[in-house]
Amino acid sequence: MCESPLIVKTVRDVRECVAKARADGRSVGLVPTMGALHAGHVSLIEASKQDGCYTVVSIYVNPTQFAPTEDLATYPRTLEEDVQKCRAAGVELIFAPDNSEMYPPGDQTRVCPGPLADKLCGAFRPGHFEGVCTVVAKLLQIVQPDTAYFGQKDAQQAVIIRRMVEDLRMPVWIEVCSLVRDADGLALSSRNARLRPEDRARALSLYQALCAGRKLLATGEPSMGRVIAAMRAVIAAHPEVRVDYLSLVDPETLEDVQKPHGRVMIAGAIRVGDVRLIDNMIVDLPVK
Amino acid sequence: MCESPLIVKTVRDVRECVAKARADGRSVGLVPTMGALHAGHVSLIEASKQDGCYTVVSIYVNPTQFAPTEDLATYPRTLEEDVQKCRAAGVELIFAPDNSEMYPPGDQTRVCPGPLADKLCGAFRPGHFEGVCTVVAKLLQIVQPDTAYFGQKDAQQAVIIRRMVEDLRMPVWIEVCSLVRDADGLALSSRNARLRPEDRARALSLYQALCAGRKLLATGEPSMGRVIAAMRAVIAAHPEVRVDYLSLVDPETLEDVQKPHGRVMIAGAIRVGDVRLIDNMIVDLPVK
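The joint structure predicted for all components is written out below.
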């Protein structure tokens, strides 16, 4: 047992494998995923491997973070390819639980984030971050890693998870790894697989809008309204694209920036057909 | 450091002491308390000691489990006596944190129980069990015990904590220890210290009501309404006492019992002056 990479489906088996790794003196890294792995996920695995961790990848499409109107049913599922990518990246353990293993009969406890979850994506996806916090809390309890790796692509998620870990005094370090883009700039997302060929350029407008915003900020533009208007104009060239939000926020508090200085996060979410995409960039401006 | 019983106030110090105990091959027991220790708490400590655990007692009056109208300010605080009782009982470590250690700046995450928290006391103390779950989750993350000990006196709390631990896949065993009574039958509670002398007999009416209910159930009384009426009649002899509830419930689901059979929990809450008291008994009836 516990060959590399072993796939296990139960809490008991994960704990047994992790306990053996601990007994061998290994530290443990967890990369929580919903599968449909891409180079962004692989970069998280690589970070864990570089840290010398016994690396556990969880693959679980968590139903509680999808609203009934959202894409739970159509979310990409590619377990065989995922396993191959994990093997190639040196993952020691894949945890691919069933729903009943994550939400046992009678399950009713939730981990509820605070006001951070009302902003940005939270305003458009009520309950989403409650589902995320709940499943991540469970995964952290199951695996008990030293470090868990999350992508900066899901910037708000990373902020909320760090808040949760700090608030609940969880003994784990949350490592947030850089966003990974395709050659054309599109932020990697499992949902990109659901874009039709003609949607690719439309999807890219979000990245282009963020670039335009970053450029304007770098010139010293003092008006947040003008920056956002410039970004909206980029996306407006694609009438098929709907904007959920384009915002300039503090990267830690997620509060809207009033005057641009210091670290600013430019964040956006759009819908292309029935595919919802997010992206963000952090800009370092002179501190005023 | 880490002499017996050492008092520490920070997460860092607790973890250091617990890590040393672990390195010595000890298993770890946690007895979470709000201080004002009585023989009920001591029985939890004794259970932990009997299990051979390095025993940690947390003493923390958790503000989030008190509503603004409740007795946070007047809740008994007797740290010096508590420390003596812990020493006498062989406690290795006392964790007595400040609020800022339990609720760090910006804290906003909560652990939210489900429908179990709406019943019995939950109906009279909205938000109470959310506060309880949140602080217990934090304590479990801080101490990471093998076993945490709770009293059956707080029966609903015990059910909800067990549910939380199961749902969030926390790697800890919850041991629920028998309720401890004074010689006259009054269930031990830190709040008993706040009873005026003339309130003692009034407070005891809750125990007497539960005994009356138990007796009636044992005779085979099939009507839950009649059992509850008989219990209410006992308490009605004390017009100064207000009843929050007197209920016959399933000890695991906390659902009202319709027909008495198997294990039934008789549970009640009363108010004597501004002191709120709870009590319960479990009755084993023939399974029908």
